[in-house]
């Protein structure tokens, strides 16, 4: 019975000792039951995880934590279970609560690091993994995830190092082995990758991931038979491996084309696995192979909707390119490169598309990035060298060519390009050495032999030039081309019978090769045998009925013989090619025949086909002006300016000078300086205008300004030398000429300019020395040949040589009235009056206002009577 006491007026309950003992016993019993219940729950959760029911385990752990939020073990297990369920966000949230404790449970930093890697929070992940490794530096799992973290951020060197550390601690970690091999592949370290995968498969012959990597490496090594065998092994061991079935079909498509077997595999994959992309990718590749690019786009887009992959974006880029959608293709390639910056083919394709679109700077940038990731990509070094060569940046182009070592596929071409550069920059000995090295590496490389022939011809080493082309092992078309070039040398040496025989042989070896026909036609034209020349063009048209150049060449010969109707027919046939040049030649012919309306129609048709053809617009503007329609002419000239401002200024300048409106001409020429104040060309043009209006001081001042703004300008230096020579300042003029010859990449042209200056100053002997030096370096200079011919024609002992030069000039520039005038005069001085009269009549028809031609024609006609 409970006793009650009172204290200061209050009643107080007192618990007896016995009751306290009973109460404590009850409390302990309840606690023991709860602990037993928690232990059972933890065991049950662990059992569920082991049975694959992780979600059920999550429910138990969460119930335990509701009852006791401080249960560290339950929270740790919950974090681990979330990670196994592929829920890194929830795993990290739980793990973070434990990691911040003063005494965190062992392994929590590793678990949190793994979750953060899965969340792509690389820096935070590396901090947690480092914290774990500080406690356990030999944790193979921690090093594995360090590798994963670096791989996510494309730090492949660090990733590979971490994977190797993990494997050194535990060689049984097959997944790490596979990641290391995949990383080496991404690093383009193929031999290392192959060695690792072979070691992996030696320990685990049936490893699926290892077999896939082996096949990938075999494909990269272009060993398609081995790759095909590996995929067939995979398909036998793992019949449900969709990726392997796809890759086997892909290799068959690449090596054997769109076969029925590939088509059936594509159809089966698309039908049996409609929610996987592999079947649609194969269908798209089949479409690309068959040329149905639009359908390929549809299939690749469907594959991307099912699973976005870099490979599919790359295929889609190819389909867009084939379909003409270059901007769309570039967009797809950028997605590929965002995900895989080292993707060699994607970056090369992007560079090439930029080139197609005229974006040279962007192409160079992409190729430089290729070399960042693939420093041994010699094809791209060669292309970069070519791009800088096209810009005349010889220093940079040489640097890329010289970075290509001997023994690789591109080395012969690199030596060839170096030889061409040295030849163009006045270093013939170096050029010869490089070209000889090219031929030594690739004896069948005809282009190198042709380049060496050109070098020897410049040096007048004609016998050596001919011998270079006598090479065994050339293909039949190359033999035909070599025979044609040797024939040209023989013609230069006067060995005409041998030359004709070689050209006829070349025609039989390669009937569609145009060069032998053109060479023979020029030969017969020079011998004043027009019918034989025209017969060569007709023979070529039998082989190439649609050849616009053959039609226009025959038309020029027919026009020269006064067969105007037939000439017009061939020019009209040439326009079937839709080429601007063919229309321009037809229009020029019609204008010469005074058929202005028809000429305008031809130019109008040209502009329908080639709307931005500046030469066509300029020609049309001239015809309109000649017809008296100045308003139309100026409107057309404005169209020219919208496309090419310099071309419009040039045409306006020509008109002002032709009309002797010198103030207006100077105003037009000054616009070139406004367009490019830092270039010498504008000053040179304005100086030439001033010189024509006899303002010698003004011209000299402008040429000196040109050299101030562009000291390396060869043209300004040559023009200034010529002007000073005319002014009698011979010593200063020679200094400028000597510097131009020393620095010019084409010294032959500098010699020619000095020769013309000597000739204008009445110093004929000095002019001859420079002219001979010029054609000694470069034979295809028609102005030099023409000038020398006229000089020699006046000297009976050299008249034959003068005729030879006149014929060579005429062969280089057909239907030029002033070159024809020289040829006629040289024929006259060699006693061939009838031939001279015929040629001079052609010249007079082309330039009826020329008094010199009229005088020479009168001489020939009076002598021929």
* Beta-strand percent range: under 5%
How would the global form be characterised? elongated
Number of strands: 2
| Class from helix and strand fractions | mainly alpha
Going by CATH, what is the homologous superfamily of the domain at 779-865? Answer: Tetratricopeptide repeat domain
C-alpha termini separation:
169 Å
Strand order of the largest sheet: 1-2
The CATH C-level name of the domain at 779-865 is Mainly Alpha
Total helical elements: 49
Q: What does the main sheet amount to?
A: 2 strands, antiparallel
CATH architecture of the domain at 779-865, by name, is Alpha Horseshoe
- What is the fold-level CATH name, i.e. the topology of the domain at 779-865? Serine Threonine Protein Phosphatase 5, Tetratricopeptide repeat
Helix proportion = over 70%
Which consecutive residue ranges, at least 5 long each, have pLDDT under 50?
1-15, 25-33
Oligomer: single chain
Overall average pLDDT: 89
Structure summarized in a few sentences:
Keywords: Membrane, Repeat, TPR repeat, Transmembrane, Transmembrane helix. This protein is mostly helical.
Main traits of this protein?
single chain; 865 residues; mainly alpha; Serine Threonine Protein Phosphatase 5, Tetratricopeptide repeat; two-stranded antiparallel ribbon; 49 helices; 2 strands
Describe this structure in words.
The chain has 865 residues and is mainly alpha-helical. Among the domains are: 578-641, Tetratricopeptide repeat domain (Serine Threonine Protein Phosphatase 5, Tetratricopeptide repeat, Alpha Horseshoe), CATH 1.25.40.10; 779-865, Serine Threonine Protein Phosphatase 5, Tetratricopeptide repeat. It has a two-stranded antiparallel sheet. The longest helix has 34 residues, at 17-50. The chain is elongated. The protein starts with a strand and ends with a helix. The model is unreliable at 1-15 and 25-33 (pLDDT under 50).
